[in-house]
Write a sequence for this structure.
C-alpha cells in the first residue's frame, strides 16, 4: 500500500515534540510515505530538523498558523488535503493535536480516531486503529468508513522514535491568506501555578496523593522525579485539597498519561485514578498502608514511610544513572 | 447572554465493565448505572454563572435516545431554562462527527452567543464533539477552559485554559464554543424540589428532519469492529526487605528487569 501519510508536527522550540517523531515512525511502518507537515511563520526554517524522519516535508509558512490557531490551521490543512489526497493524517494525541484533528475531521467529514494506541493496515491496506474506552477498561478496534483521508491522533509513548535516515525533500507550500487572523488570539501564556506541568510525553511520572500529607510533601515527589528525569503528577485528593494545580491531576477528571514508569506515592489507587494511568508500562506503588488497593494493579510494591523511602530511592537512582 | 450547553448521559465511570469472549462489536458489557458526564456538569454550572452575571438564557441539548434524556432532566434540576433532545433512529449509530452535525444544526436554529460543552465525555473520552461543532458552525473554539470573562456588549470573551506545560489566555469574538476543564466551576448538588420538577418536565424532542438534516449527514465515518479487555499486568512483586535494602532492590529491578532507568 502506498500513498502519503501526513504527520502534522507539533513544534517544541526549534524542533518537534517526540510524539510527532513517533507518528512519523508509525507512518513508515504502515508502508506509507511519511510526510511531515510543518505550520507557522518559520516552518521552512524548522524543516531541516524533521527531514531525516520523513520522505517529504511540507512547510506551510504563514504567521497566522502558529500556536493555538486551530481554526486557521484546520482550514489550511483541509485545503491542502483536498488538493493532495493523503491516505492518512496523523498527529500526537496532545491537547493541541486532538483539538486540531477534531476540527479537521469535521471540515473534511473524514473518519477520526482520537487517542489511538495502535494503528495497523490490513491485507487490503485498510487502516484500523485501537483505542482505550471507558477509562481504559476496554480497548475498541475501529475501522474507517466513507471517503477521504483517515485521521488518527496517536497517544504519546505508544511507539518508538525512528532512527534518522536520509533527509527527505523539503517543499514550501503557500497558505491561503484568507485563513489569516482567524480567532482565537493568544493574549498571554504563563506556567501553571506550582511550576510547569507537562505530563503528556513524560517518560517517568511520580504522582503523589493524600499520603504526602500536604503541599510540602510534594518535595519528595519532586526529588524522585528529578532523579528519573520525569514529571510530577497528583491524585484527585491532593488536587482537591489545593496542594497541587489541577493540570497535574491524573485520572478520570484529570489527565490520561502513558509513561514508561509511573510511581505512585501515598495514593490508594481508586478506579478514577487508575483510569488515567493504566497504560503506563511499569507501575511502582509506595504506600504505608499494606492494604492499599493500588498494590493489586502495580508491578512493584513497597510498604513503608515514603518520607524515608523516596529520598533514598531518588539517591539510589541518581547513582545508577550516573548523575 | 444566550448560552447553549451540550450534555451527555454516560455509563457511570465506576460501573462494572466486562468484555465478552467473542470480542465482537457487541462484546462490551457495561453495568446499567448512568450519570451525566462530569465535565458537562462543569460546563452547565459555568453557564448558570454567566447567566447570573449577565442575564439571559441557558438551553441544554443532548443527542440520542434512551437514557440521554436524563442528562436533560439533570440540567433542568440544575436550573437550565429550556432543554432539547435530538432523537432519531439514524443517530443511534452515529459517531462523534455525526453527533456534532446534529448538535451544530440545533445551535444554528437557536442561535446563541456562546456554546459550552465538557472537554470530553468520560465514557469514550474522545473530545471530538466540542471542536467539531465549532468547525461545523465556522466558529472559533477554546478547549479546556478554567476561567471565563465574558464581555457581551463588546461581543467577546476571554478564556484562561490549561495547555501542556501551563496556562494560556485566549480572546475570542462571540459567538464561540468553549469546552470546560475541571476548575471552571464546581457543579452544584441540585435541590430535591428541582429534581422533582425536572422529572415531570415535558422534554422537547427533535428528529433529523426537524433539524433540516438527512441520515446521510450523520452517517458514521468510523465503525467498531470489536472490543478486547485491556492488557493485564503480572501479579505485583512486593519488596519485603528492610530499609535500605528494599530501596536498593527496587532500583535494581527498575534498572535490570523493567529496564525503565535507561
Amino acid at each position: 500500500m502506498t500513498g502519503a501519510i501526513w504527520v502534522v508536527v507539533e513544534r517544541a522550540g526549534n524542533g518537534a515534540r517526540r510524539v510527532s517523531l513517533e507518528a512519523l515512525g508509525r507512518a513508515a511502518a504502515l508502508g506509507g510515505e511519511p510526510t511531515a507537515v510543518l505550520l507557522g511563520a518559520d516552518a521552512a526554517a524548522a524543516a531541516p530538523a524533521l527531514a531525516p524522519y520523513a520522505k517529504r516535508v511540507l512547510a506551510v509558512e504563514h504567521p497566522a498558523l502558529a500556536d493555538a490557531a486551530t481554526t486557521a490551521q484546520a482550514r489550511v490543512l483541509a485545503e491542502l488535503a483536498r488538493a493532495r489526497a493523503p491516505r492518512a493524517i496523523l498527529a500526537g494525541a496532545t491537547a493541541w493535536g486532538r483539538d486540531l484533528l477534531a476540527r479537521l475531521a469535521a471540515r473534511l467529514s473524514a473518519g477520526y480516531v482520537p487517542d489511538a494506541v495502535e494503528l495497523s493496515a490490513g491485507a487490503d491496506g485498510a487502516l484500523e486503529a485501537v483505542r482505550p474506552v471507558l477509562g481504559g477498561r476496554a480497548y475498541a478496534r475501529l475501522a474507517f468508513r466513507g471517503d477521504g483521508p483517515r485521521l488518527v491522533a496517536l497517544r504519546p509513548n505508544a511507539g518508538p522514535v525512528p532512527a534518522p535516515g536520509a533527509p527527505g525533500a523539503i517543499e514550501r507550500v503557500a497558505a491561503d491568506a484568507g485563513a489569516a487572523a482567524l480567532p482565537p488570539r493568544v493574549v498571554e501564556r504563563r506556567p501553571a501555578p506550582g511550576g510547569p506541568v507537562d505530563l503528556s510525553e513524560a517518560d517517568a511520572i511520580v504522582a503523589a496523593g493524600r499520603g504526602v500529607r500536604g503541599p510540602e510533601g510534594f518535595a519528595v515527589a519532586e526529588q524522585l522525579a528529578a532523579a528519573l528525569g520525569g514529571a510530577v503528577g497528583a491524585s484527585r485528593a491532593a488536587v482537591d485539597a489545593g496542594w497541587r494545580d489541577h493540570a497535574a491531576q491524573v485520572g478520570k477528571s484529570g489527565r490520561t498519561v502513558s509513561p514508561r514508569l509511573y510511581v505512585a506515592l501515598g495514593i490508594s489507587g481508586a478506579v478514577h485514578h487508575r483510569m488515567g494511568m493504566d497504560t503506563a508500562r511499569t507501575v511502582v506503588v509506595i504506600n504505608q498502608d499494606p492494604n492499599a488497593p493500588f498494590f493489586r494493579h502495580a508491578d512493584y510494591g513497597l510498604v513503608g514511610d515514603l518520607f524515608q523511602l523516596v529520598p533514598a530511592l531518588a539517591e539510589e537512582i541518581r547513582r545508577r544513572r550516573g548523575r | 447572554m444566550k448560552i447553549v450547553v451540550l450534555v451527555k448521559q454516560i455509563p457511570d465511570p465506576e460501573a462494572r465493565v466486562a468484555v465478552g469472549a467473542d470480542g465482537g462489536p457487541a462484546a462490551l458489557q457495561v453495568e446499567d448505572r448512568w450519570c451525566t458526564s462530569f465535565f458537562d456538569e462543569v460546563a452547565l454550572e459555568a453557564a448558570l454563572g454567566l447567566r447570573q452575571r449577565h442575564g439571559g438564557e441557558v438551553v441544554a441539548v443532548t443527542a440520542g435516545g434512551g437514557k440521554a434524556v436524563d442528562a436533560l432532566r439533570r440540567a433542568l434540576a440544575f436550573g437550565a431554562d429550556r432543554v432539547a433532545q435530538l432523537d432519531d433512529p439514524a443517530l443511534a449509530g452515529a459517531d462523534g462527527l455525526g453527533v456534532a452535525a446534529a448538535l451544530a444544526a440545533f445551535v444554528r436554529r437557536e442561535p446563541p452567543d456562546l456554546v459550552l460543552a465538557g472537554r470530553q465525555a468520560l465514557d469514550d473520552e474522545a473530545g471530538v464533539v466540542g471542536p467539531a461543532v465549532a468547525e461545523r458552525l465556522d466558529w472559533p473554539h477554546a478547549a479546556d477552559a478554567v476561567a471565563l470573562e465574558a464581555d457581551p456588549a463588546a461581543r467577546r470573551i476571554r478564556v484562561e485554559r490549561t495547555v501542556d506545560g501551563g496556562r494560556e489566555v485566549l480572546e475570542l469574538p462571540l459567538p464561540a464554543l468553549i469546552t470546560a476543564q475541571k476548575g471552571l466551576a464546581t457543579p452544584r448538588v441540585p435541590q430535591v424540589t428541582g429534581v422533582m420538577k425536572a422529572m415531570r418536565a415535558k422534554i422537547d424532542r427533535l428528529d433529523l428532519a426537524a433539524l433540516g438534516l438527512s441520515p446521510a449527514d450523520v452517517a458514521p465515518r468510523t465503525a467498531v469492529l470489536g472490543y478486547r479487555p485491556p492488557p493485564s499486568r503480572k501479579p505485583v512483586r512486593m519488596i519485603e526487605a528492610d530499609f535500605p535494602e528494599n530501596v536498593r532492590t527496587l532500583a535494581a529491578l527498575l534498572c535490570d528487569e523493567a529496564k525503565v532507568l535507561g
Remarks:
- Chain A has two domains: 4-179, 204-320.
- Chain A has a mean pLDDT of 92.
